Amino acid sequence: MAEFIGDDKGKMLRENSELLDNILQRTTFEYMKDRPTYSRQSFRPSFMASPLMQNLVPELKKGFQNLVELTKKPMTGEFLRKGKIGDWRNHFSQQQIQRMKERIVEATKGSTLMSLWDDVDIP
Length: 123
Known about the structure:
By secondary structure, this protein is mainly alpha-helical. The protein folds into two domains: 2-84, no CATH class; 85-123, no CATH class. It is 55% helix and 0% strand. The chain is built from eight helices and no strands. The chain has helices spanning 2-5, 7-15, 17-26, 29-33, 40-48, 51-54, 58-70, 94-107. The longest helix is centred in the last third of the chain and has 14 residues, at 94-107. It is globular and about 45 Å long. The two termini are 25 Å apart. The relative contact order is 0.08. The mean pLDDT is 81.
């Protein structure tokens, strides 16, 4: 993933095993579930101003900007539920799946982004 974001990011992780271990630890489901203290308000300005944002391909930059906009809305429910792959199927109706597919098609129009999931069981 670091290589996808930028060659320098991949190189940085290959050369710094402590940084890689830190990222691996902090991105586990258990770590994130146990630390609900993350501040959505402090996240927005620092993330949008980061050098990482300036060097992203347009599709990713738009996606991150949409994510930042989403953090402005009040949070309801648990942010992390179970950490089980495919559990979304237990929560989405067929109508919701169809609406989501339509939104994805619209949001990724003109890009090959969704081809990353061609061999994944997404209805």
